[in-house]
Amino acid sequence: MFIYVVKTGDSLFSIAGKYQISMDSIRIINQLNTGKLVPGQDLLIPTNMYVVQPGDSLYSISQMSFTSVETLRLYNGLQSDVLMIGMRLYLPPRSKYETGGFSYITPSTPDINQMIVQTFAPINTFFGIFDYHIFEDGSLSTLDDEQLIRLARENHVAPLAVITNLKETGFDPELTRRVLSNPEIREQLINNIYNLVRTKNYAGVNIDFERIYEGDRDLYSGFLRLLSERLRPEGYYTSVAVPAKTSDDVPWLKGYDYGGIGAAVDFVFIMAYDWHEASSPPGPVAPIREVRQTITYALNHMRANKIFLGVPRYGYDWTMSNGTVASAEATSVGRAIETAMKYQVPIQYSTEYQQPFFQYRDETGKRHIVWFEDIRARARKLQLVVDYRLGGIGAWQLGLHFPQSAIVVREFLSTKKVI
Predict the structure, then answer these.
(1) Is 285 exposed, middle or buried (0-12, 13-18, 19+ CB in 10 A)?
(2) What was the pLDDT predicted at 34?
(3) Could you report the per-residue pLDDT of 343-364, keeping only the tens digit for each?
(4) Which of 40, 182, 200, 378 is the one with CA 20 to 30 A from 8?
C-alpha cells in the first residue's frame, strides 16, 4: 500500500491503469462517493506493487510507501538507485509496532454509535466517552452512554468516562479552582467519579480539565494522584488529557506539571493540535516540528509508555476579509476534501509543516483559507509514535469523518487490548 498524490489530468481510470488495480478498490479504500478528484488530493493505493513513474526516485517512493530506501533496495535486488520508468517494485509489508489507542467518541444515534464503534474498535484500546462535566458541589452531569459502554466492551475496547470542567461558556478554570481547593468538595467529586465508574461499568476515567491556572498546578496534580489512588486498587484506569507543551515558558500552560501528572496517572493523552484554531490567523493545525518538540519535552518529564499522542481528525476553514479573519469554523478532514472538490481548487502541501492547505472563493466571492490533516500528515505522526516508542496514539474525535484513517493506522501499528 502507498499514498498517491493526484496530479493535474489524473482520473480514477488513469490512476487505476497506472498501478493495474480496479477503480472500485481505490473508491472503496478511500471512501470516494464521486469520480471527481482535485490535484493535491491524496489517495491510498491498495497494492504491494509500485510502477515507477516519470520523476520518481527511491526516496520519493519510500516516502509514499512508508518503507525505507534500504528495504526497497533489499527486497527488489537493486544494485543502484537508478530507476527505469515502468519498472515494478515490490513493497514489503511493514513490521508493526504494538501500542495503545485512545480516541474520543460522543454519544449519537444507536446506528451511528454502532457504526463508529465497529469501525474503530480494532485500532483502539480505550474509548473516551465524552462527557460528564463537574458542578461546584462536586456532582456530575448525566449522559446517555449505556449503549456506547456496552458496544465498547463487546468489541474489546475499554470505555473511559471523560470528566471535564466544561460549562456553557467553555472550559472554566475558576470552577476547577473552587472544586479542587475545597477538600470536602474535592473528596465528594472523587467519590462521585468512583461511583460513576463502578455503577456504569466503565473501565476508568479520562480527566479533561482545561485552562488550569498556574497557581493551581500542584492542586491539579494532587487531585489526579488522589483520584488514581482511589481507582487503581480496584483495577480502574486513570488518564488525563493535557495541552501540548514544548517548554516551561508558555504562561498559559504553566498549570500543567507534566512530571507530576505523568507520575499520578496511567497514561497522558497529549492534545498535539490547535496550534492554529478558530480564533487565530490561518495556519497548520498540527505542524510536525511543534508536535515533535512536544514529544521531546514530554519525554523529559514522563516515561514514553505513558504518552499517547493526540492527533486531529479535523482542520479549520477561515473566512477572510481584507486580509484578516472575519470568521472561522472547524471542518472534518472529509468535509475539507469535499470542499476542495466542490470548488475544484488544488490542495497544496507544506513540507515544512507536513500539513495540507488550500484556498477558495465561495458563492458570495469571499476568500477562504483551509488547513487540515490528511493521510500524509497522519503517516508522519504515526512514524513519530514508532520512532519514540510511545505508549499510544489517539484522536479527537471519531464522529469527524476522516477517510482512510483507520487503514493507515493499521499500516503502522498493532493495537494492544486490555479487555
Answers:
(1) buried
(2) 80
(3) 999 999 999 999 999 999 999 9
(4) 378
- CA Rg value for the chain: 23
Buried b (16+ CB within 10 A) or exposed e, 328-339: bebbbbbbbbbb
Helix (H) or strand (E) holding 314: strand 314-321
User: Which tens digits make up the pLDDT trace of 238-249?
Assistant: 999 999 999 999
Give the up-direction half-sphere exposure of residue 233: CA atoms within 13 A in the CB hemisphere: 6
Amino acid sitting at position 417: K
Which are the contacts of 9, defined by CB distance < 8 A and separation ≥ 6? Answer: none
Question: What is the Cα–Cα distance from 225 to 207, expressed in whole angstroms?
Answer: 12
Mean pLDDT, the chain cut into blocks of 10 residues (419 residues total): 94 92 94 90 95 92 91 93 92 93 96 96 97 97 97 98 96 97 98 98 98 96 98 97 94 95 98 96 97 98 97 97 94 95 96 97 96 96 96 94 93 96
The length of the chain is 419
Catalytic residues: 210
Residue 174 makes CB contacts below 8 A (sequence gap 6+) with none
- What are the cell numbers at 120? 474503530
Place of cell 504553566: 254
> Under 8 Å CB-to-CB from 417, ≥6 apart: which residues?
125, 156, 157
Copy the grid coordinates of residue 78: 537493486
Q: Which three cell numbers stand for residue 222?
A: 494532587
Please answer whether residues 373 and 311 qualify as being in contact, where contact means their C-beta atoms are separated by less than 8 angstroms.
Answer: yes
For 375-384, how does the pLDDT look when each residue is reduced to its tens digit (9 = 90+)? 999 999 999 9
Which is nearest to 273 in space by CA: 381, 170, 176, 358?
A: 381
DSSP 187-218: HHHHHHHHHHHHHHT-SEEEEE--S--GGGHH
Enumerate long-range contacts of 28-36, CB under 8 Å, 24 or more apart.
29/404, 29/407, 30/403, 30/404, 31/334, 31/403, 31/404, 32/403, 34/341, 35/11, 36/341, 36/344
The amino acid occupying position 191 is: N
| Cell numbers at 360, concatenated | 477558495
Biggest CA-to-CA distance, the chain: 74
Please tell me the distance from the alpha carbon of residue 122 to that of residue 414, in angstroms, as a whole number: 9
- The Cα 72–Cα 315 span in angstroms is 34
Helix H or strand E encompassing 103: strand 97-105
